[in-house]
């Protein structure tokens, strides 16, 4: 209460301390709404400016947290009308078969962006429900983007944040009946675009050891440019996407040809991304050898470094894996250089020998 009272009196330092505890969860909420970490940060920044202006009039009729979610949700609804919906590669166009033609990068606010997990994702209890890993999986966030904005907000507020229908109605200035109707339509719309099992269910079946073994096997085969060994890890219906390039490949045959003809024409080093341990760190860092790899969007992820003519390895992609029955069903390779600093990834690795040179 002391911080809140001080913030009401215009103490900016107290205000910053007051809202700091909510900033990460509000950003996660806006990310689910907008499909973009960049847009989510914009929405939170706009919202907190509104909160600062309005906090002298905050009467406490709802909790501070609920009030913040109300302001952020409405900011996202406004932004949704001004910015195009974020897409995944299959939503942008059909798969390609010609590995020589990957197209020109499609720039601008077009693509669904990855979410940098942090240690908060592993905390238990209602306070961490905002970032349950299922709620930031690529497939779920992508499915949300196909819903009308109001339905999207209702589904997130009801099923991720677990607000009651009455609370959501108050947040969105509508009625509980309208909320329940929107929730029913949103559930169906999202389910039509979701796999039968979440990535968290698939990863739980694999177990920590199985996840580590799968990632280690992929790293070893990739660095050796061992196409057969990589393909042995892939499902028959695997996809390889690479926004902002429009090209993507569907099915083991086309993905195999792309790996052999384009990807492995140069040397790579893959570094599993580990969850940041410092509470103040939002992004991620490369995992130490033998460390359990961390996640991006709650899914196994690697930082991909491409060898240059002078032997240096420079960051080239964030590679997020989807799995089913112990095999990789998608290699989502995010190539936008603007993403990398948000994940705390070093631009360059030492010029060591790659796996294929050992």
Automatic annotation (TrEMBL):
GO MF assignments: DNA binding; sigma factor activity
Keyword Transcription: yes
Gene Ontology annotations of biological process type: DNA-templated transcription initiation
Domain RNA polymerase sigma factor 70 region 4 type: 139-188
InterPro entries per the UniProt record, alphabetical: NTF2-like_dom_sf, RNA_pol_sigma-70-like, RNA_pol_sigma-70_dom, RNA_pol_sigma-G_actinobac, RNA_pol_sigma70_r2, RNA_pol_sigma70_r4_t2, RNA_pol_sigma_r2, RNA_pol_sigma_r3/r4-like
Pfam family membership, one: Sigma70_r4_2
Keywords: Sigma factor, Transcription, Transcription regulation
SUPFAM superfamilies reported for this sequence: NTF2-like, Sigma2 domain of RNA polymerase sigma factors, Sigma3 and sigma4 domains of RNA polymerase sigma factors
Gene3D superfamilies hit by this protein: 1.10.1740.10, 3.10.450.50, Winged helix-like DNA-binding domain superfamily/Winged helix DNA-binding domain
NCBIfam families given in the database record: PRK08241.1, sigma70-ECF, SigX5
Subunit and partners: Interacts transiently with the RNA polymerase catalytic core formed by RpoA, RpoB, RpoC and RpoZ (2 alpha, 1 beta, 1 beta' and 1 omega subunit) to form the RNA polymerase holoenzyme that can initiate transcription.
Protein name: Sigma-70 family RNA polymerase sigma factor
Upper taxonomic lineage: Bacteria, Bacillati, Actinomycetota, Actinomycetes, Jiangellales
